[in-house]
Design brief:
Elements (H helix, E strand, L loop, with lengths): L1 E6 L3 E7 L2 E6 L2 E6 L5 E7 L10 H7 L1 H7 E5 L4 E7 L2 E6 L4 E5 L5 E7 L8 H8 L6 E6 L3 E6 L3 E4 L2 E6 L6 E6 L3 E11 L5 E12 L2 H7 L3 H17 L4 H6 L1 H17 L3 E12 L2 H43 L1 H16 L5 E3 L2 H7 L2 E3 L1
Antiparallel strand pairs: 1-4, 2-3, 2-5, 6-9, 7-8, 7-10, 11-14, 12-13, 12-15, 16-17, 17-18, 19-20
Helix pairs in contact: 5-7, 8-9
């Protein structure tokens, strides 16, 4: 008729009579009258910290005094999370719309409720400790120097370099990182038809940087892809209006024309383009051979012109010399002696008969 129940120091017992909650037994010794009563008990070890029982809601809703005596009740609304601290150390994050009963006495349990809709960002002081919790209910992001973060939670916001966490208990945040340092984009192998129907292959390079991340992300889907297409269009429109000769002669002007059009376009999307240059202009094989022939002919014509100028100058000099010698016999004699000196340098032995006159007018014997 009586049942003896012993409750240990680290235990609590839930008493059930005829399938209804009848009370909670604290540590001690009890004798329960069981005749026709349908008595049942549930033993719980308070070192497990949390009450795991089907009677949790009943105790919390219908027996508030018992709940306050034996438990610390934590209940979160639809847009709340609860930070649970055990002996002053963050231990768990309870999700929205949840009821939890912690046993009193095993450890010191405290908690803080946070409305994650009103405060979607985790306070900086909690980021490090929250990262160590298994069920942290947050998304983490580390934004490095030279980059910016874009966070999508009920809108879009920009964050500076640093460590961040955002609650994902109600709405999962999306975090995107954008590079703010200068980057380059290559536009290779563009085949373009000039005004005089010559097909060119052109390689283009550009350097850009994002100065307004929010505009860059909200107004264009992909900055790289949009800049690539803008460069393509500007290059084709610019070269298509020029002949091959103009393209080869006005490369610097073409760079400026393409740059101006692209810069104006990309500024509206929060992107600053600093340098644009045509790296290579590749001609078809037959056109390249023809141009090589033209260049060779031009250089040969220039060489012939220079040669004719030098010959004319030499002839004019000889004519002037001849006129001087005609009027001055002594100059003729000096010229003859110069010639004799040159001849003497090239022979081994020179025999002279009749003096200098004989040498010049009669006989010269070379051995």
């Amino acid at each position: 008729m009586f049942r003896r129940v012993l409750v240990g120091d680290n235990e609590l017992v839930i008493l059930i009579r005829k399938r209804r909650f009848a009370g909670i037994l604290a540590p001690g010794e009890y004798f329960l009258f069981t005749l026709g009563r349908g008595v049942e008990i549930e033993r719980h070890n308070i070192k497990s910290l949390i009450l795991a029982s089907d009677w949790t809601d009943t105790i919390l809703r219908q027996h508030a005094e018992l709940a306050a005596r034996f438990f610390i009740a934590i209940e979160t609304a639809e847009s709340q999370v609860a930070l649970v601290y055990l002996d002053g150390r963050l231990s768990r994050v309870i999700p929205p719309a949840t009821r939890v009963l912690y046993f009193r006495g095993a450890v010191q349990v405290t908690f803080a409720l946070i409305d994650v809709r009103a405060e979607p960002e985790v306070p900086t002081r909690l980021v490090a400790s929250l990262a160590r919790v298994v069920e942290n209910r947050a998304a983490f992001a580390v934004i490095e120097e030279g980059k910016r973060g874009l966070v999508y939670i009920d809108g879009l916001r920009q964050v500076e370099p640093g460590s961040y966490a955002f609650w994902n208990a109600v709405q999962a945040p999306r975090i995107e990182v954008l590079e703010m340092r200068p980057q380059s984009v290559e536009v290779p192998g563009q085949e373009i038809l000039t005004r005089d129907k010559v097909t060119l292959r052109v390689n283009l390079s550009a350097v850009y940087e994002i100065f307004d991340p929010v505009t860059a992300r909200t107004r264009v889907k992909d900055v790289d892809a949009h800049l690539y297409r803008t460069l393509q269009i500007a290059l084709r429109q610019t070269l298509g209006k020029r002949t091959l000769e103009e393209v080869l002669a006005e490369k610097a002007d073409i760079d400026e024309t393409v740059s101006g059009a692209v810069r104006r376009e990309m500024e509206t999307y929060g992107v600053r383009v600093s340098a644009i240059a045509i790296k290579d202009i590749i001609l078809p094989g037959d056109i390249r051979d023809i141009l090589n022939q033209v260049v060779t002919a031009e250089k040969q014509a220039q060489a012939n012109l220079i040669r004719r100028r030098e010959e004319t100058a030499a002839t004019r000099s000889l004519l002037n010399t001849a006129k001087l010698m005609e009027d001055n016999p002594l100059l003729v004699r000096l010229k003859e002696l110069e010639t004799l000196e040159k001849v003497a340098e090239k022979v081994g032995k020179l025999t002279v008969y009749g003096g200098v006159d004989g040498l010049l007018a009669r006989t010269i014997k070379l051995t």
